[in-house]
Amino acid sequence: MNNKKSKEKVEKTLTARGEIYEWIESIIIAIIFCVIVFTFFVRIIDVVGPSMNPTLEDGDKMIVSNLFYEPKAGDIVIFRKDEYKPEALVKRVIATEGQTIEIDFNKGVVKVDGVVLDEPYIAAPTINQLDFPGKQVVPEGCVFVMGDNRNDSTDSRKAEIGMVDERMIIGKVYFVAFPLDHIGSPYGD
Q1: Is 91 one of the annotated active-site residues of the chain?
Q2: How many other C-beta atoms can be found within 10 angstroms of the C-beta atom of residue 102?
Q3: What is the pTM of this model?
Q4: Among 32, 50, 78, 135, which residue carries the largest CB count within 10 Å?
């Protein structure tokens, strides 16, 4: 009888240990999966500063990816411009390679290929010229970017940033994940 109880106790101990090992194995696999996903496919990046108000606010946490991404006008992108500052910047793509960008600072409007952009997302009309020299064609492999808060944004109008090489784009912003009252698509979808 004691052998039977002893054998049951050993079996329960082995079963419990097996379950613990299965849980540990599952947790390790989940951690490895998360590391791979957040290293190669998506990133979480913070908005720093007011240049994308009212679309994005300082401190918003964004889900960003560059998987199969090719820049298009209207996309919000994260990019690096180390000669300006080491932190990643967030701006909206206004024009892509081959397009002509023109800004009428008296009327506060932006034109791409001669057409005034419909920009319901901007904070105010574009009146701050910065270093913008006038009508320009976006070079091959580059984009022209601007913040939605046009008069408080350092963007492609500024000589230190200028046209952004597509290779410097970290990815497109797909989703705002935090704070809770800002969760959702930044594109108004």
Answers
A1: yes
A2: 17
A3: 0.80
A4: 78
